[in-house]
Amino acid sequence: MIDNIWLVHPELAMCDAFARRFDGLRNVRVVQGRFEDLGPHDCFVTAGNAFGMMTAGIDAAVVRFFGEELMARVQHRILNDYFGEQPIGTAFVLETGHASLPFLVHAPTMRVPGNIDGTDKVYCATWAALLAVQAYNNANGHRIETVAFPAMGTGFGGVPFDETARQMAAAWRNYLDPPHRLDWEFVIERHRSVCYDGPRQVAK
Question: Which CATH number is associated with domain 4-201?
Fold first, then answer.
C-alpha cells in the first residue's frame, strides 16, 4: 500500500478544499506551494493529456524540473504501449533518475486540453495513478511510499476546486478501503461515491 499522499497547490482556496474533503482520511498532507518548491518525495503525479504534450500548466513545471528528455520518454511510452493515445483512466510509472524525486506517474485527465467539469475524469485519473503505483510496488517491492498529487483538472480542465478535491478524496477513500466482494450493492455505492455529492449528481 502507498504510505502517504501529499496534495499540492499554491492557492489557499484549493488547499482549504483539500482539507475539507480529505478530512478524516489517513496519511494525507496538504501542502500550499508549487511543485518546484516541494521537498524530497518518492513520486509526483502529472495531470496532463492523452498524448503526453507536457507544454503547459503543471506538466510544463515538471519538464522544466527534469528536462525535455522526460517528456520524450513519456511520449515514447505512450507510442509503444497505447499506440499514440493514452486512455483516460490509465496511468504508468516512470523512473526519473533524480535522487530527490525518483518516480513520476503520467495520469491524463483529458484527451486534449479542454473543459472536463461535470465528468468523473478527475476521479478516473487519480484512481489510475494510485493503482499504477500499487502495481509498481507489487512488482518491485514497495519502493514508492510518498506520492504527491497536484489539483487534478483545475487548470485547462476547468473543474472547480471543491469538486476536484471531492473526486480525489473519493479515489483515496476507495483505495484505503478496498472491497471484499463485488455485487450490485457495492457497484451502486461506489458509483454514488464518485458521481454524487450528497443527493446531487455532479459528474456523469
Answer: 3.40.220.10
